[in-house]
Amino acid sequence: MSNRPLAAAGRLVPLLRAGLIAGIVVAAVAYPVAAATGLGAKVTAHAMEHKTQILTTALPAETSYVYAPDGKTVLTMFYEEYRQYTKLADISPNMQQAIVAAEDNRFYQHRGVDPKGVARAFVANARSSGVSQGASTLTMQYVRMALRDSAKTPKEVQEATQQTSLRKVREMRMAMDLEKELSKDEILERYLNSAYFGHRAYGIYAASEIFFSKAPKDLSPVEAATLAGLVKSPSEYDPASSDQKDATGRRNYVLDRMTQLGYLSPDAVRQAKTEPIRLKLTYPPNDCASVPEKWNSWGFACDYLKNWWSAQPAFGENRLERMDKLRRGGYRIVLSLDPKIQEAAEQNVGTKENTGSPFANGIVVSEPGTGRVKAMAVNRTYSLDLSENGLSSNPEAGPKVKANFPNTVAPLLGGGDLPGYQAGSTFKMFPMLAALDAGMPLSTSFNAPHRYRSEVYDGWSPSNASGAMSGNQTMWSGFGKSVNTYFVWLEEQVGADKAVRLAEQLGLRWRTDVDREHASPAKAKQWGAFTLGVSDATPLEMANAYAAIAADGRYCEAIPVQAIYNRDGTPTTWKTASGIEREVAKPRCRQVVDADAARAATDAARCPTGDTPARGSCGGWSTADSVRGTVGRPVAGKTGTTDSTRSAWFVGYTPELAAASFISDPDNPFNAVGDGQSQIPIKAVAQTLHDGLKGQPTRQFTPPSDRIVG
After folding, report:
1. Percent of the residues in the chain that have a pLDDT greater than 90, as a whole number
2. Residue 473: in which H helix or E strand, if any?
């Protein structure tokens, strides 16, 4: 008897078994539909329908861009997944064809699930006793990515990605439902914008830029095949690795598939496969530390933007949600800084020359009537690298604590969590403004002694800086000469608590335990030293507070942007507590003091600068009489120094701009800057106002009325 029939039968068994399995699997592909209408469907159908509806509208996370005021110059980006959504019309047909060839060659034939692909994968996997082929279509892959990207909890992320049969069935069902709602082109577009290509490149725009430094519409067949080959395993086929063997092999596989599908001719593929993979890598900036070197000082404004953003209810209920929106929301953010004024500010605080000083000299410029920040500069380099910094000047800081110079990212200018610096006599503005707003005239006089004993403040006895300040003073002369005893007396008349509350309305915040205690309702009435500037403040706060006076008492919240746009190009809006919809980037202003009172305060504030008030007399001399000559136009302001000149300030303003400058040691507030450096902030503000307003028409301050002059 011959053994030939038995041998033939032995060869036939595996084939019959494979065919039987394939038949079973093909029939089983219908299971997702059946399951959806079976026992489990009654429980999950509504949820499945809801998720499918979400997928038709959900968009993947997208990079937010920060622009200079021209709206074109990119300063930096914020992202967790570097991605910019790109329409299919702006993606090369080469790329569209390559991804179909690489991931789903029957994409245009199936309706979300490919029965032949499932059967083929099942048989291949059965033969290999493992997973040698997948069966996910492009639509199914997109469903998985979209569910992952739209997940709000770790559990939802796990449900979207876990390797279970239930997840696969749900994915199939949703893929078929999705194909009823979206066209093939819409699905392909979303897929290409969701896929991960490695090197933090999410979506085809990022992949094109990172690997080839070009737009998706310009990808060649070879480049498209290279990128399409990455999706299966971005790390294994990474062409930026030292060995491109695997990446080249995968690229060539995709090119062959493109030929089989009729996308490329055999001759074109043969030629393409001889070419090496030529990369032109780009590393996109991320966060404020990536601001280009030529714009380095703008890093402090960028950092302020982050802190401001994290406090805006328009972007979420808490800081975590708001920062997540910044990194995933695809916003277009245009900063409010004015390049001309910013350059002037940088030059006048020596951002390039004086970074090695322990004393920080900074300046902030604000726009009256809008609150928009026009300049932020300090004599420091914005950098996370502290390796070349010396040790802190604070003896209590510890033996290994680094100083804040020359490099730092600390918010030395305000807008962060640092308390700031004692602002000295610049605080005299607040009791004077409170007194004027209460109806006291500018001519209110007091024979100010060199030392004054306050019965209101439990016998506290402050004195003046000089005996020449003694004598009869008004608000004009008292402010111009910075007469301590006059302002302690004036504060008594109006109430220290009124001055404190007004300062709060003008944007000041109390960041130390001592300041919070003194500013509390229970103790504010006794805070006599408030008028002498013993509280900490930041340049950002002081510039904005004085800007409100320049704007006739209309206070506007400090804001670092001039525009914010959603990913679709529309202005970003939010609803206030009263239900009014407003643009997030629009100024938020309110009248804090009477306009006439603010004009009167400005008239008195012209005295310290050497300017001539409209209605009164400055008393013969002032503390910063060089300012008017430098600025070259009407200007008001106030000097401020603390005990032993540990810090020195000047806040000045014109009708167009308000600027606050300080000099102090941020590491050690007891490290006195000395009298010799007290002129530095005065010069910085005066010269910045001059340079920033050069070429603009001269505007006059509005004089106060007879009623408030007295």
Report:
1. 79
2. strand 471-473
